[in-house]
Specification:
The chain is of the alpha/beta class and 265 residues long. It has twelve helices and five strands. The longest helix is centred in the last third of the chain and has 24 residues.
Length: 265
């Protein structure tokens, strides 16, 4: 069945132009996986499909990524049918000398390169004021202090159970996943009182910093939650530029309300 689906997709792409997006990731077993998605027009509708998933046997450099795509296209579809490529901004993809895009442009000089809108929002979200940045660091320190120590994690778990909390564990934050900050902050703010109670005899300085930064943490929680909601709306098969602009306008209006509430506090 999988072979039939791939054959049907490739037969269509042989005679039509399409856009491509590549995503390279490392699995927990240290295997490097390359995913390729295509977007094209079929029966006057915009369609999006997974083109292939391939293991990168050695490195994850731009040349290796390009050769993996080129090999697939030589066997299945014409490489010249690619009219645009979306990137996540990783150096191995966008590097002007040895990045994937540079190799692609050598083969297809007129290819259009765009930065994935979801990753654009992630880049903007990194530019925090010094005050908000410090507040975020206090949260990260508290999460790491509890989660990185097995005993602390178990004791905090039991404290949450005793306090009848809806959750009993904090969530780590990672840079590489755009949902991470919102999920981490939302869970942290839900358990804020238990965290303060837990740190009373563990780290009084961090506890005081968190209490002082509570309003900032609440604002960051709302802001990143809205950002996550918008990013989820920007994913799907039936999206286009007009629809994504509506999502972003809605996000800006909601953010403005959040900022006004934050200023009032």
């Amino acid at each position: 069945m999988a072979e039939n689906i791939e054959k049907s997709l490739c037969n269509h792409l042989k005679t039509s132009k399409f856009s491509i997006q590549l995503y390279e990731s490392t699995l927990p077993t240290n295997e490097a996986l390359l995913l390729s998605y295509v977007r094209f027009i079929k029966d006057e509708k915009i369609c999006q499909e997974l083109l292939f998933a391939r293991n990168l046997e050695t490195d994850t450099k731009g040349e290796t990524v390009f050769k993996t795509l080129e090999k697939f296209c030589d066997e299945k579809i014409p490489l010249k049918n690619i009219i645009s490529a979306a990137t996540d901004g990783a150096p191995a993809i966008t590097g002007c000398q040895k990045g994937f895009i540079s190799y692609l442009k050598n083969k297809i000089p007129d290819v259009l390169v765009v930065h994935c809108v979801i990753y654009r929002q992630q880049l903007v979200a990194r530019n925090l004021s010094e005050r908000l940045f410090q507040s975020l660091q206090h949260v990260i320190r508290a999460v790491n202090k509890i989660r990185n120590n097995s005993l602390n994690d178990r004791l905090f778990n039991q404290l949450c159970v005793d306090n009848d909390e809806d959750f009993n564990r904090l969530i780590f934050r990672t840079e590489v996943r755009w949902l991470s900050k919102g999920n981490c902050l939302t869970r942290f703010y839900n358990l804020f009182d238990s965290v303060i109670e837990f740190l009373e005899n563990k780290d009084t300085e961090l506890r005081e910093n968190l209490i002082t930064s509570k309003n900032d943490i609440a604002y960051l929680t709302d802001h990143y939650t809205l950002l996550n909601d918008m990013n989820l709306q920007l994913q799907g098969d039936d999206l286009n530029l007009i629809k994504t602009k509506k999502c972003r306008r809605c996000f800006r209006s909601q953010t403005a309300l959040t900022q006004e509430e934050y200023r009032q506090t």
